[in-house]
Give the backbone structure.
Amino acid sequence: MDAVFSGLASGFEVALDPFNLFLVLGGCFVGTLIGALPGIGPINGVAILLPIAYGLGFKPESAIILLAGIYYGAEYGGRISSILLNVPGDAGAVMTTLDGNPMARNGEAGKALSLSAVASFVGGTFSVILMSFFGPALASYAIHFSPSDYVALMVFAFASLASLVGSNPVKTLLAALIGLMLASIGIDANTGVARYTFGIPDILAGIDFLVVVIGLFGMAELIHLVEQQAAGTLKTLKIDKSFVTLKDLAFVKWTILRGSLIGFFIGILPGTGASVASAVAYGTEKRSARDSSKFGQGDMRGLAAPEAANNASAGGAMVPMLTLGIPGSGTTAILLGALLLFNVTPGPLMFQQRPEIAWGLIASMYIGNVALLIINLPLVGLFARMLTIPQQFLTPLIAVLAFIGVYSVVSNPHDLYMITALGVFGWFLRKLDFSLAPVILGFVLGGLFEDNLRRALSISGGDWTILVTSWNSVALYVLALLVVAVPVVVGRRRRARAEDASPKAPA
Amino acid sequence: MADRIFAGVLLLVAIGYTIIAFTVIHAPFQYDPLGPESWPRILGIVAIPCILFVLAKPDVASLGVPAKTWGRLAALVMMLFAYAYLFQPLGFILATFAFCMALSLMLGSRLLPALAFSAGIGVAGYFLCTKLLELNLPAGVLTIFR
């Protein structure tokens, strides 16, 4: 317990350094602006700005504080386009549109925006507090993990990814495999053997992480935006004078707390981020409500629950990223990759070896949350102005930012072709209902997965049974089985019950 | 159908990937029990059944993109490749100006706003990035700005 408070104290020392404080506030502000852009979510925002943040040459803790601020801000900003435009920035914001947009159409836009800001604040703060206690505890436990335990942890991560993310588990698994395969390109670090480089010098060192991120989340998004253009112009609802009252807050306080709790714990699960958390929180709230008839037509609970949950999951997703080196969501996978770019390896040792990064990041999230609440309540009108930026200028701007980012890091024009090609590939994946987050998770975890597997088998001299000898790994394999089996069994039982109830219903 | 075509291409790539893993990749000396070839082999062997499953049970029938949109997307990709090609030799300012003009006009902007926007992004973007943020961008033919 003492360690947590002294850690937090040292973290605030880092985060309150004037320059870092400026970065937290700037990151939150820019993040909100980007999140408010129609169709651009946190993951795209962080992806597009990551190489620029890297190219600025900051110290690692400053850069990661900036990126986390952008991530956090974009989670806040996403609700603006969801509520006023009915266009969710990413999968995690879909649930916000269900009740948020009807509220705005009922003439309660101001109330919806302020209520969701408060819900986001509570969810975010709640999860940062839990994170300050959970993180170090998990880290000190995970410090004893052997390579074979890590292999089991990865299996668990990919199992929960396949079973909880996306509509088709096979496609999600395949997406993760594509990421793992992309990661296997380049010279093998252990033996110096070139794999899948076909003699092309530009990919001898492997495909750069920044290139993959920008390609899949920047350029693919750009192509998507151009494709959507034909669909007609977007219509923004006006912000009115209505504002959230204490009575409203008292009405939804338990909803927000439940949403935060659900969000945090779902966020911790490897691979499952805001989209699952907000969907589960919304579903729980709707089922437990005594009168659920108004859900979908502008019920405050239906707005507060997913907003609290998706911000709580942003904090929850940081826990496995910082303590185990396994990202809890697509966006934290990008942050993990960013840390690796700075030669910082997140994992159980980070709280001891690089406390300024681990605790500095946590402290900056406390500050960021307060700052976001403060700038979001009065300035929401300014952010909403972002919705009216003409698409014909916004779209080229995204491409220019992506090109600047990629070029300024390595100055290799070859990378510019790579991001365009990966963008086309990512767009096809998206059109075919593959989720892109598993690809980036696979890409980030590929090296770690292979290294740990090879290390484990080197320890045992090639004996595969080492993978199941420790209790930690056996427990993780059981968890992996459960996370795959439970949704299947529950789904089958629910279907069976539905068929019992109406035997003649068409299958 | 769209799913099947994509999965078919993916299958060919995965088979190629696996064959290379089994035949070409080989360490001259055994450093560790697995070597560089085992991991790609495992990935390939797991991926192929997944792709076969998608081939057998596709769930996206068509991309739902009208022919006109295809034309616009093709033009976009061409512009991006041209931008990538011209980025270094022509320099950031000119390449960005040309790219922004082309794309914003295609997306329905009028001529004057597009001109102002493209010139603004090209010139302001260059000086903001190189002078203020100290990022590396190509000056290209406008060598006086270097």
Notes: Chain B has five helices and no strands. Chain B touches chain A through 68 residues (CB under 8 Å). Chain B has a mean pLDDT of 87. Residues 8 and 55 of chain B are 7 Å apart (CA to CA).
